[in-house]
UniProtKB/TrEMBL annotation, chain A:
InterPro entries referenced in this protein's UniProt entry, alphabetically: NO_sig/Golgi_transp_ligand-bd, TRAPP_component, TRAPPC6/Trs33
GO cellular component: cis-Golgi network; trans-Golgi network; TRAPP complex
Cross-referenced Gene3D superfamilies: Trafficking protein particle complex subunit 3
Similarity section: Belongs to the TRAPP small subunits family. BET3 subfamily.
Subcellular location(s) per record: Golgi apparatus, cis-Golgi network
Protein name: Trafficking protein particle complex subunit 6A
GO biological process: endoplasmic reticulum to Golgi vesicle-mediated transport
TM region positions: none
Gene name of the record: TRAPPC6A
Cited Pfam families: TRAPP
TrEMBL record, chain B:
Quaternary state and interactors: Homodimer. Component of the multisubunit TRAPP (transport protein particle) complex, which includes at least TRAPPC2, TRAPPC2L, TRAPPC3, TRAPPC3L, TRAPPC4, TRAPPC5, TRAPPC8, TRAPPC9, TRAPPC10, TRAPPC11 and TRAPPC12.
One annotated GO biological process: Golgi vesicle transport
Natural source organism: Monodelphis domestica (Gray short-tailed opossum)
A Pfam family hit: TRAPP
Annotated GO CC locations: endoplasmic reticulum; Golgi apparatus; TRAPP complex
Gene: TRAPPC3L
Subcellular compartments: Endoplasmic reticulum; Golgi apparatus, cis-Golgi network
Keywords noted in UniProt: Endoplasmic reticulum, ER-Golgi transport, Golgi apparatus, Lipoprotein, Palmitate, Transport
Physiological role: May play a role in vesicular transport from endoplasmic reticulum to Golgi.
InterPro entries: Bet3, NO_sig/Golgi_transp_ligand-bd, TRAPP_component
Protein name: Trafficking protein particle complex subunit
Entry's family note: Belongs to the TRAPP small subunits family. BET3 subfamily.
Amino acid sequence: PALGESFSFLHSSFISSFWGGGRNSLTVLEGMGFRVGQGLAERLPRGALAFREELDTIKFLCRDLWGAVFRKQTDNLRTNHQGTYVLQDNNFPLLTQMAWGQQYLEETPKFLAFTCGLLRGTLSALGIESSVTASVASLPACKFQVVIQKA
Amino acid sequence: MSRPGNKRPEYHKIDWHLPAISSSASAHSMNRDLFVLTYGALVAQLCKDYEKDEDVNNYLDKMGYGIGIRLIEDFLARSYVKKCHSYSEITDLIAQVAFKMYLGITPSVTRNESSRNEFSLILDKNPLVEFVEELPAGRSSLCYCNLLCGVIRGALEMVHLTADVTFLQDRLKGDKVTEIGITFLKKLEEKKYRRKK
């Protein structure tokens, strides 16, 4: 069954529906993603989450979470080994629905807000507080920057 | 593999090959949970935005409609469907192919014997309500899955069929089963449709 497609249709209906833009709608979308991310992590078998270090948790996002949600893995991961991670996806599925080309760059935040929340929520349920932002240089490639909040 | 040189002193690029994705079973359940949780978050957000159940229901239907008119194309691209010659065949297609494809379930189909255009889909399992035991307090008229009605309606409209689609029974409201009623209305004349263009 194409449940991945179902999620994709649902997600893009958020964007084109009444949450069309503006600061508040991005917060709403990010908040929804956060709750979903928490729920996802809470439902994973405990054994799957025995990460020895922070980097392993991030790799879990790049590999397992991305694989389950987007049917692929991230294309690149960078870190400064001081709590900042940049996850790069050169062909982000939720962006490929948009028209290619620079003119739509200003629309991209609403396509990425839910996923930012998803990452933040998953990490939160795994005991890691963070802030997650996303940026697009050129469609459909994007980067998610995860900054771990130190206690 | 760290880069020598000072172009970006604060970042080490990790050049690594990820091992194969972990077992497909867990990936599948995460994928399914994602969908179910996302739907739940949608309903929760709408309940925040709208006080009246009726408004939430209408919005779910409207969003579903917007999905349905695009989903039909995806559906037709993915499945080889022979041309349907009756409402009965269409309803079977919705239940056995479309529902299976997008929700992983196969509702059973019943028809109203006294009329040739009224059908019901009986949902035994429903992934959308997997994590929902009962309706939220004060939300007794909420049609939790109303999105589905809009999806069906929108999809049918794109193949020139108009129908009323509503929940006739809902387990979340205390009914024994969950039943979606589809009433096919007058078929849009193909010729008329073309002339409008």
